[in-house]
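DOMAIN: structural biology
WANTED: fold as tokens
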Amino acid sequence: MINNKRIRPRKKVAVKSEHRCYHCGGAIRLNGDFYTCIMCSREKGHLCPSCSHQPSKVAVESKKISA
């Protein structure tokens, strides 16, 4: 039996993962009373100039506009 139908690969749907660390991109877990990163032990809302995974709205606000 010959099947002339073309089989297309399914599109992979991006699964939104849980919260990630803004500094290193590691997973966040509950550690005692507050949430911390598994890899770097920083708190969930930590933001600094060295953070490589900043949310887009925070990264835009931190830029200075020169006149």
About this structure: The chain has a mean pLDDT of 77.
